[in-house]
């Protein structure tokens, strides 16, 4: 007797594919949309998870960016904001090998992190180690002495 196909066999891959399509659609409708929580789907390949620590004199932002090289990342700072962008190209060349399965894809992300205090844009350091990007941002120091302003 032949075995009847089970219609639920492909349900898992269908739901994963549906989740990716949903994430792509919602991010195009509203770039500020962050599906952390909600339906349990995530944009983790487009928005890395970050930690922000306040050390008094500086903020340290750590971002998970596995598979990205330093050349794939771009960091911009302004005022009270840090922006991290990443672009990873799809790798297809395998030196003449016959590809049996190809799941790794090109991906991009753009993550903006709001900081509670202004930062010195000239005093920012970034390192990438084992897929973790660490950005140290010195806080802007207030003027020590008050300045008198003349009225015209």
TrEMBL record:
Residues 41-152 form the SHSP domain. Belongs to the small heat shock protein (HSP20) family. It comes from the Archaea. SUPFAM superfamilies: HSP20-like chaperones. This is Hsp20/alpha crystallin family protein.
